[in-house]
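Posting this for the archive.
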Amino acid sequence: MDIKLIDEFRRRTNANYDEAKYYLEKYNGDLLEAIIAFEKERTGYQKRSNFHGGANRLLNGLVRVVQKLIDIKLIIIDRTGRDFPVPLLLLLVLGPIWHILLLVAFVMLIMGYKFMFREIPDPNVNVQNFVEKIKDKARENNNY
């Protein structure tokens, strides 16, 4: 992300660097869309929203958490240097079998695999857009 674009976002919105980077990445560098989304979220305004106040903020918070769990990945690197990213969300879903996963990880460490966590945003996975589509479909069904 271009630092000049981040600085311009911050100048116009009084946001911090993390917020500026998050919104600009989310909207693929489109400054206007990023500012509009930031202002809507900060003021709690959602266009045509069926949720009110706290419920809307809770939903937005859950959407951000799920997006982060998808973006943060466990990178498994084999001896040849190939890497295999596994979303943190998948590891949490497999939580009930944590003892088996721990055993597998231990065996992989012995075999020479390396593990690291890294945030790798996937432009193809946008939870916010998915939730908005569901809301729009629900509104359409309520209008009939």
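The chain has a mean pLDDT of 85. The chain has two domains: 3-68, 72-144.
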